[in-house]
Specification:
0% strand, mainly alpha, elongated
């Protein structure tokens, strides 16, 4: 194998390894989200059964959701950077199909990252408002 070709393949292998790592992070964040929803469900079931004290002893959901969202935003940031790099490489070549695909993937990566950032920001906003209402003791019964 030619030295230049091997160098290119090794670089591609590094990108694939990084992609696998960030996909694993997304899977871990999804599992954290699953756990937070299952805790929320358990709390609701306990409350319905009249076991509000036990429900109140469950771990708080916000920190779990916050960590999961932060992991997702970080991982999606990597994929946006990868899409930018792919577009740059496609623009250097003459393949119009590769250019079109790279542009589409860049927009998709950007929109997915923006959606995750909006959800993260909303999660923080809701938590701050909730904490503020609890401090003022103005939560509805």
């Amino acid at each position: 194998m030619e030295e230049e070709q091997e160098k290119t393949l090794c670089a591609q292998l590094g990108v694939v390894d990084d992609s696998l790592f960030f996909l694993l992070l997304i899977i871990a964040a999804t599992l954290l989200s699953f756990w937070s929803v299952s805790l929320q469900r358990k709390g609701l079931c306990l409350t319905i059964q009249g076991k509000t004290e036990t429900a109140g002893q469950l771990p708080p959901i916000y920190p779990i959701r916050h960590k999961a969202s932060a992991i997702i935003v970080g991982a999606l940031g990597f994929f946006l950077c990868l899409a930018l790099r792919t577009l740059e490489e496609a623009e250097e070549g003459g393949d119009c199909v590769a250019k079109r695909s790279a542009r589409s993937n860049l927009w998709a990566s950007l929109f997915v990252l923006l959606a995750a950032m909006l959800r993260y920001q909303d999660l923080d906003f809701v938590e701050r408002c909730q904490a503020s209402l609890e401090e003022e003791d103005t939560l509805p019964d």
